[in-house]
Amino acid sequence: MLWSCAARRYALGALRGLRGGAPPPARRPGPARSSMSFEELFSEEHSLPKSCWSKDMRRLFAQFKKKCEDGSWIPLPLYKAAQSSHDLTTFFCGYLPKASKFIDKEKLSQAQVFTESFEDGLGFEYVMFYNNAEKRTVCLFEGGPYLQGIPGFIHGGAIATMIDATVGMSAIIAEGVVMTANLSINFKRPVPLCSVVVINSQLDKVEGRKLFISCDVRSIDENTLYTEATSLFIKLDPKKDP
Predict the structure, then answer these.
(1) What tens digit of pLDDT does each residue of 167-195 get?
(2) What pLDDT is stored for residue 143 in this prediction?
(3) Per CATH, the architecture of 5-18+38-43+51-235 is what?
(4) Residue boundaries of the structural domains of the chain
């Protein structure tokens, strides 16, 4: 979890007002590098809701879009997966130049973002919304048939992936470029395959470069608690090795 999968969905353009539009840290003297901002990496997705989504997913999506009308909630734009290999690498190496030695660019050219590597409806179907006043990120998640663990239920690793994505988003919005330092998950009940759950992520406190974030996974009526989690994220320092 060196580079949180949530970073692949970060949308600075939509959140500029929340974080003041702060640019990446100033570069140190050295060879010129391509200037790549988060805003250039991420763009609005206009194809939502997807035709593959269930009625429950569509209904929840509509409810949250309604909440966005007064500005209390913000829909988080989806990352364009096709841009991941070149653009994300350019930004990452520009922000953390020492990290470039760990990246095999030839292998990366064949890579795909994990949560977006399935055909629509088969794997991770999700969308996120953010509430600045509450410092809360909500993810609506529907796990497709390719995410099965034990028969009839979503694999625990898929749930952990979406928890990391959601708490990571809360951390990114708060402090920018971060990494997952610790993720502690308590699985209460298995999540039925192809069902819709609501992942609630709350920024609890910030201590220097440390961000403490809690999370739970519930049924759409919120009566069933499937999973609880706590996490620790560290804001990356471009002056040090990652």
Answers:
(1) 999 999 988 888 999 999 999 999 999 99
(2) 97
(3) Roll (3.10)
(4) 5-18+38-43+51-235
- HEC readout, the chain: CCCCHHHHHCCHHHHHHHHCCCCCCCCCCCCCCCCCCHHHHCCCCCCCCCCCCCHHHHHHHHHHHHHHHHCCCEECCCCCHHHHHHHHHHHHHHHCHHHHHHCCHHHHCCCCCHHHCCCCCCCEEEEEEEECCCCEEEEEEEECHHHECCCCEECHHHHHHHHHHHHHHHHHHHHCCEEEEEEEEEECCCCECCCEEEEEEEEEEEECCEEEEEEEEEECCCCCEEEEEEEEEEECCCCCCC
Supply the pLDDT for residue 142. Answer: 98
Active-site choice (56, 164, 237, 241): 164
**pTM for this prediction:** 0.78
Statement: residue 92 has pLDDT above 70: no
Residue 120 annotated among the catalytic residues of the structure: no
